[in-house]
Specification:
2 copies of one chain form a homodimer. With 761 residues, chain A is an alpha+beta fold. Among the domains of chain A are: 281 residues, Aldehyde oxidase/xanthine dehydrogenase, molybdopterin binding domain (Aldehyde Oxidoreductase, domain 4, 2-Layer Sandwich); 138 residues, 2-Layer Sandwich (Aldehyde Oxidoreductase, domain 4). Helix content of chain A is 27%, strand content 24%. In chain A, helix 11 packs parallel to helix 19. The relative contact order of chain A is 0.13.
Chain lengths: 761, 761
């Protein structure tokens, strides 16, 4: 019998909530950690990709003969070397369409659909030979008119990216080809009736442009296709199991033939979920018989990995004079890039989630354009949508003469409130608490500095929401004779997985954090784990290690029973790392029992596999003070405070770091970052010199307030913290600039150029 | 409810008994497999060891100054850089003495005790710099008289290796220092009374010399002592967990600070159980701050790794005229090398194990001499002892005019017979069956070729015994969506672990062998596993994967219950890879259920940890025909047949290979292999040019007969096959030569020199 105090009933934790050193820290700061590009193998070849210079072009012919004849070139491939997804794929059910697009995105087959789209690849004995070989490949392109603008792309007479793409129109396939891949709708109540009751209506259109996750480490993968048919891939990825599964489908081999070894990862933010060079490196390896490493340059990353959508969102909010919101309508169109699949539906779900609004109609459009296929980017879909909704709410508060916090509190969602998708909040949520935390913060209570003639000061506030994703996690562990426990987990450690899972296992077992030795394993070593992403890793991984701990505790109790020669019915209690028998003084510490396991049947090993159904919805509220230099258009962030309901902060330093990182990215999106295309669809700012991300010199220390409203179904109350913090900054900054300048900006980024052009039209 | 047919009740297996391709085959034949010396890391240094030129010498002083000043040298260490085991060690209980010796063996502290004993080590930027540095180290030795001969060493006035070593005399420490570390005895019945009944007594003394395992891959280890205190060791070893534990104790760090990653291994045979360079590489790494690789040369291997004991065994056998053996006495003395711990006691246990003898006294002596500390070597202790007993039995048969098989059958042990240690055979054993198998073999029934003037032909027969060791095994597994299962095990794959464990798991789950993907994991990834050795890996590992299979099957049944929406009491049966429900036609194949696991709660992961109490005793009987060229003394093996009770041959090709390899080693021991020391204790044949091992050109194809007397407590009846086959060849060959020449040879090797010197004294 295991008797454990349910952590949610506990008032104090011993490990959770502390700030220990991360297990991977020393390797990372001393440069010993192996990232994607650090992998090396005997006989390693270097792979490079030839990419389309055109945003839209038919590929008539590819001549690789000269490249193949170049000394030092070991393999040249085109799409013809990959299985043709139109000529039979592994049966993966409804996902087939997605895999077909993935195959076409990995290597263009008949058409290049964006500048940078891969058309051929080379493996050679050095990078320079590989690059020379690329120059020797002749591609006969028939340029086609590119489709770059959302509004243009949606027109009936727009050039088509895919002649066979028909709109999924509210669940039914339309009969006419279009660049609109899907039109979905959330409908609740009667919006028309709601607006009829409204005293005030705010209605505006907002736009954002494509931006990139800007992870510091580019994609880098090494593949070896062994003579026995086994493919091993070392890659920097958030999702080793998804890479395994994708590569297996794209190359038409069983998943058991593919082993993915995740390297350390220098940022992902959603951009390291899909495969890019992995399948190409594998096919080059098969053709050359040698391992092949492929590393993307920053230009390739910007042109041809998966940024997030540019968007256009029309919002209409109706409220009564007392601030009660009676109806909202929105229409969101997101760029999917070259293939369907933006996060627009998620955006429409999130945008009004903090509020209890009786009447809603939220339409979303997924639109293909001749730009790179978008990928997830931190809270995918939510930032652009909530930029619109939270900007509009700010304007509504202004129009009503209400405090923006009071407006939000008045309309706040609570347990039982149904979101746009009709799913209710079943457990307590922290939206009210984060608003109250900001209202009571030193920041909110502090007066703004005075504006000057040329330096205009403003304060802005906005909320953010992300539902979080639970998905699946597995893990193993072993109890060692010195009382340490080795933990084998399967989530690449981006934001501190090793530490956060080790801490939750230590808490479960009642042992010190330092006694848990975590490691991230490859896809053949640990059970299936979904990606590190969706703010799921500490959440679901935590549930997995908690269940793992129960498995271990149960076994330890049985070992103690053997040592004490007790009967099955004798009660043995495991509590706080101590095992107690029914007799007076009959007890063993975890360490003492660990040292005696070999006497009682060998080592204790544990396992868990979980797939939780519930999620821990997460809310944040941010406030920003900034100054706009009206001579240069430069915006300076003066102070920034982010309050977030984290459920329970397992390692508060990492939680703060996640929030600070998300805010920095959101500020970049608000002020500077944008994909700038010319009329031919060529990205003109494809480097970090020209694509402007904020650095530490651009920002003050971001202040954080951790609100802990535990999520009851999680053993430690954890929600998930990584996504939400990128959401509020877009609107918060825009709202602050509006207040500073008395002009409402609805198009991001609010760059110096845009400010100057607006102020001096 | 899991319902499985107990394999021992099965008449047929689907996977066990087949001969599939080994999973590691392609990597090994294409040269891609990473062995010890193949490991490389950024900034890798090369470590080299300075070794004593003296077999026995006091170390007065070591001056490393000049070596330290040599450019390119990054660290120089002596024993002073290792924790002094006399000044406090981690508390490891009774094992402390062993660890103390291990520490002194790894690096000489006050005395060098054999030629090649490590006295200092260097890490440098290249091997040549390291070697130059070794030449710059000045050691002030005081040479002492070496003790090289067993008989001399045991004398009261012999020079002492260890001034504090007192004999463990039948369980009591004697009060006088000695080179005899231990004297043990097995006593059964009344030997004196037994001999009084004997009609015939054979009494002789037999000797063997130190021989080496001769694994092709030398010891090679790379260590990195990280700035966070974590030590990672890549090493070629049979026992990654023992290396972990040993290094932890020798370096006085918790075991959880040491991670051992086993590389592929090119042979071990017991010689790759102890640590040699691992702790030195670790300390050099700590001192240099860089990873350090150390690879032993063949000369270092022969001088300073762990060969097996030279021995001297006195045997006396008494029998009645009808062949009934009434009493045996034996006195065995084994060289332990420089530190106590030979396998002499095992030898005395094995020597008469095949027989039911009422009266026995078997004395064994463990003796230190100025030679390298011995290690295990295939059936450790048994070959030298059974060379004596099986030679004496052959002579007894001759004296009685009995067929050697009939003599052995007449006296054969059976269920209930107690061995010398008083432990009875509780389960059926195969000693009779292997004798019968040889008696019925084509080989035994075929006449010998005629001898000629100069080419004398003989046939010899002998038995072998090894008790096998179960020890502990752990493993993990994951069921993949394509119906494959990844298996994580912890035993370096010397003789086919991956295949034999994958086969047993496949059999357990009722799935094809190819669907199991095994891997050998490091000490932080898989649970504790004892060494690959003792013929335990397929045996205990098989029990572990069987239990692992039960864990998985139970979980799969529960998943089927969810899919079929059945109640807990509804019977679900798992049989031959199919899960069947109570309703007509309600069934799912393993693959079908595997594909639906994500719907039913996520992946299925399994674990097992076992520590079986029972062993599967193993017997072999060999017959050899050979020709002796009396002009050159060269012995040619004409035909060789080995019958062995393997319990159940999981992969018959590997079992045959194990038997053939053991026989080849045994023949080398019998005919050619020996450590030749000069009077100063210098090994004069420390290379494979001068230390003569048989090659494939020296031997005919060894014929094998697999007898399968299942070991009932094992789920598949497995015993363990690796040790036994090295035991019989020594006596079989000696017996055949005796029959060819009419002279009984009692000293090994029966080399051309010995034959010529005997024939022409």
């Amino acid at each position: 019998m295991v008797t454990t105090t349910r952590p949610s009933e506990k008032t104090t934790h011993k490990v959770i909530g502390t700030r220990p050193i991360r297990p991977d820290g020393v390797d990372k700061v001393t440069g010993r950690a192996i990232y994607g590009a650090d992998v090396t193998l005997p006989g390693l070849l270097i792979g490079k990709v030839l990419r389309s210079p055109f945003a839209h072009a038919r590929i008539r012919n590819i001549d690789t003969g000269a490249a193949e004849r170049l000394p030092g070139v070991r393999a040249v491939i085109t799409a013809a070397d990959l299985p043709d997804p139109d000529k039979g794929m592994a049966d993966v059910g409804e996902a087939s369409a997605t895999y077909r697009d993935l195959s076409h995105n990995v290597m263009a087959r008949d058409k290049a659909l964006y500048q940078g789209h891969a058309v051929a690849a080379v493996a050679a004995e050095s990078a320079s030979i590989a690059e020379q070989a690329l120059a020797l490949i002749t591609v006969d392109y028939e340029p086609l008119p590119p489709v770059l603008d959302l509004v243009e792309a949606m027109k009936d007479d727009a050039p088509l990216l895919h002649e066979d793409l028909r709109t999924n129109e509210l669940g039914t396939l339309s009969d006419k080809p279009s660049n609109i891949a899907a039109h979905a709708r959330f409908l609740k109540g009667d919006p028309a009736a709601g607006f009829a009751e409204a005293d005030v209506i705010v209605e505006r259109t907002y736009t954002t442009t494509m931006v990139h996750q800007g992870y510091i480490e580019p994609h880098a993968s090494t593949a070896y296709w062994n003579a026995d048919g086994k493919i091993t891939i070392w890659t920097t990825t958030q999702a080793p199991f998804a890479i395994r599964d994708n590569v297996a489908v794209l190359l038409n081999v069983p998943v058991s033939r593919v082993k993915v070894i995740p390297t350390e990862i220098g940022g992902g933010f959603g951009g390291k979920l899909p495969p890019y060079v992995e399948p190409l490196a594998a096919v080059l390896s098969r053709k050359s018989g040698a391992p092949v490493k492929m590393t993307m340059s920053r230009t390739e990353e910007l042109q041809a990995s998966g940024p997030t959508s540019g968007s256009r969102t029309h919002v209409k909010i109706g409220a009564k004079r007392d601030g009660t919101i009676v109806a909202v309508e929105a229409s969101l169109a997101y760029e999917a890039g070259a293939f369907p699949g933006s996060s627009v539906r998620f955006g429409s779900l999130c945008m009004f989630a903090p509020y209890d609004i009786p009447n809603m109609q939220l339409d979303s459009y997924d639109v293909v354009v001749n730009k790179p296929k978008v990928a997830a980017y931190r809270a995918p879909g939510s930032p652009a949508a909530m930029f619109a909704s939270e900007s509009a709410l700010d304007e509504l508060a202004e129009r009503l003469g209400m405090d923006p916090i009071e407006l939000r509190l008045k309309n706040s969602a609570k347990v039982g409130t149904r979101m746009a998708n009709n799913i209710p909040f079943q457990h307590p949520v922290g939206n009210v608490k984060v608003l109250e935390a900001i209202r009571e913060s030193d920041h909110w209570r502090s007066p703004l500095p005075e504006s000057t003639e040329t330096r205009k000061i403003g304060r802005g506030l906005a909320m953010g929401f992300w539902p979080n994703a639970p998905l699946k996690s597995s893990c193993f562990a072993t109890v060692n004779p010195d009382g340490s426990v080795t933990l084998v987990e399967g989530n690449p450690d981006i934001g501190g997985t090793r530490a956060s899972l080790a801490m939750q296992l230590a808490e479960t077992l009642g042992i010190p954090y330092e006694k848990v030795i975590p490691q991230v394993a490859d896809t053949e070593t640990v059970g299936y784990n979904d990606a590190t992403g969706g703010s799921r890793t500490t959440f679901t991984g935590g549930i997995a290690v908690y269940e793992l701990g129960q498995d271990i505790k149960q076994q330890l109790i049985e070992r103690a029973r053997i040592l004490w020669q007790l009967n099955p019915e004798d009660a043995i209690v495991y509590e706080d790392g101590t095992i107690r028998g029914p007799k007076e003084g009959q007890q063993l510490s975890f360490d003492q029992l660990a040292a005696q396991l070999f006497k009682t049947g060998g080592p204790v090993v544990g396992r868990a596999s979980v797939s939780p159904k519930h999620v821990g919805f997460a809310f944040g509220c941010h406030v920003v003070d900034l100054a706009v230099d009206i001579e240069t258009g430069k915006v300076e962030i003066l102070r920034y405070t982010a309050a977030q309901d984290v459920g329970k902060a397992v390692h508060p330093s990492y939680v703060e770091g996640q929030i600070q990182g998300g805010v920095a990215q959101g500020i970049g999106w608000a002020l500077n970052e944008e994909y700038v295309y010319d009329e031919q669809g060529r990205l003109v700012n494809a480097s970090f010199l020209d694509y402007r991300m904020p650095t530490s010199l651009d920002l003050p220390m971001i202040e954080t307030i951790l609100v802990e409203e535990p999520h009851p179904p999680h053993p430690f109350g954890v929600r998930g913290v990584g996504e939400v913090p990128i959401v509020p900054p877009l609107a918060a900054v825009a709202n602050a600039i509006s207040h500073a300048l008395g002009h409402r900006f609805t198009d991001l980024p609010i760059s110096p150029r845009r400010i100057i052009e607006t102020l001096y039209p």
